[in-house]
Design a protein that fits this description.
The model has no long low-confidence stretch (mean pLDDT 93). This protein has 150 residues and is mostly beta strands. Helices cover 4% and strands 45% of the residues. The strands form 2 sheets. Strands 2, 3, 4, 5, 6, 7 and 8 form a 7-stranded mixed beta sheet that branches. Strands 1-10-9 form a 3-stranded antiparallel beta sheet, with no helix packed on it.
Length: 150
Amino acid sequence: MPTQRYPFVKFQYADGSFDPRAHTYLPIRISSPGTQTHSLEWGLLDTGADSCLFPGSLAARLGHELKGEGVKSSVASGIQQMEVDTYVHTFRLELLAPDLTTVVWTSGVVEVDCVDSDHPPVILGVDEFLSHFRITVDYPAEESTLHWSA
């Protein structure tokens, strides 16, 4: 069973100081099957999210027209069950090793809700991503470990 460990991420502020909290982000390459373009992103492990959620700006960078003709729209429930309009686009997800170059796992083509905002981080939810892994989140060691079937 393949295994990969990921140190938590601490964000650096504009003044050079670091956020004292560490976060469960993973390096992920997101590609568009239709345009063959890709982007390296940091995705937040969110065990409370049923599905992945991407900012619309990412979809646009990868060649998708967020609200284009024929794009399925949906309504997702966000924090505190607030409804959020989303637009469904297809992507392929590649989990990278901590070296940010080696691909250690690849999804099939998945449909992901995209929101018309630049603010949310890439959310790695259960249906398209987390369900493929056994995940250990070790807060004292500030490390996440993912195991998956080969």
